[in-house]
Design goal:
This protein is an alpha+beta fold and 149 residues long. The chain is built from 4 helices and 9 strands; from the N terminus they run ααββαβββββββα.
C-alpha cells in the first residue's frame, strides 16, 4: 500500500473508533502521537493523549448518543488526509461547559446535528494534528447557546 492508502486507513479507523457511535479510547494510545493537537472551532484546542481522552470522555458523558460519520470519501495527499463528516447528539447527561460560547445545565434534552471538514496530519503512522472547521453556528443555535437571527 502507498503512504496515502496507509494514512487513509489510519484515519478511517480513527473516525470509526474515536468519533463513531461507540468510542474506544484505547484508539488514542494506538493512533495518536503523544503530543497530538485536536482543534475545532467549538472548543479550546486539546493537546496530548490524556487531554484528548478527557475531552471525549466529558463530551460523551454529556451527549451519550454522540456520533459522527463520513459524508464523503477521504482524500489523502502526502502526510495529510481530509474528511467531510456529519454528526451530533442529544444532551441528556451532566452539565457541559466545554463550548467556547458557554455551558449547558444538566440534561437539557436539546439535540444538535451539524457538519464539518477535518484535515489530519500524520507522521510515522501516527496522527499529529486534527484540525477541523465545523458548522458550530448550527450546533450552538440548536443547543440554545446562541440565537438565530
Amino acid at each position: 500500500m502507498s503512504k496515502e492508502e496507509d494514512n487513509q486507513a489510519i484515519v478511517g479507523r480513527w473516525f470509526t473508533d474515536f468519533w463513531g457511535q461507540t468510542c474506544d479510547l484505547a484508539i488514542v494510545d494506538e493512533l495518536a502521537a503523544p503530543d497530538m493537537l485536536l482543534q475545532y472551532s467549538l472548543h479550546e484546542p486539546r493537546r496530548g493523549r490524556d487531554d484528548i481522552k478527557a475531552f471525549m470522555t466529558g463530551f460523551r458523558e454529556a451527549f451519550p448518543d454522540l456520533s459522527f460519520w463520513g459524508a464523503a470519501d477521504l482524500i489523502a495527499e502526502g502526510d495529510y488526509v481530509v474528511g467531510r463528516w456529519e454528526g451530533g447528539g442529544t444532551h441528556t447527561g451532566p452539565a457541559f461547559s466545554d463550548f467556547l460560547t458557554g455551558g449547558l445545565p444538566a440534561a437539557t434534552g436539546r439535540a444538535m446535528r451539524f457538519t464539518g471538514t477535518t484535515v489530519l496530519k500524520l507522521q510515522n503512522g501516527k496522527i499529529v494534528e486534527e484540525i477541523g472547521l465545523d458548522d458550530g453556528v448550527s450546533a450552538l443555535t440548536q443547543l440554545g447557546l446562541i440565537r438565530a437571527a
